[in-house]
Amino acid sequence: ELFDVSQVRGGTPYGATTIAGGDGSRQPSQEELSIARYQGEYVAGLAVKLNG
């Protein structure tokens, strides 16, 4: 999903992002939300492992 260039959207190798206008007219797409959800689950799993 990070390499799909068929539409304007956030998402970088460093993590989830959203491209938005200053007036709030653009909301996160389903793909952006999916990337953010995956990243959150992944980081939560790492935190559980580190907490031991």
UniProtKB/TrEMBL annotation:
<dbReference type="GO" id="GO:0016020">
    <property type="term" value="C:membrane"/>
</dbReference>
<dbReference type="GO" id="GO:0003955">
    <property type="term" value="F:NAD(P)H dehydrogenase (quinone) activity"/>
</dbReference>
<feature type="region of interest" description="Disordered">
    <location>
        <begin position="1"/>
        <end position="28"/>
    </location>
</feature>
<dbReference type="InterPro" id="IPR029039">
    <property type="entry name" value="Flavoprotein-like_sf"/>
</dbReference>
<protein>
    <submittedName>
        <fullName>NAD(P)H:quinone oxidoreductase</fullName>
    </submittedName>
</protein>
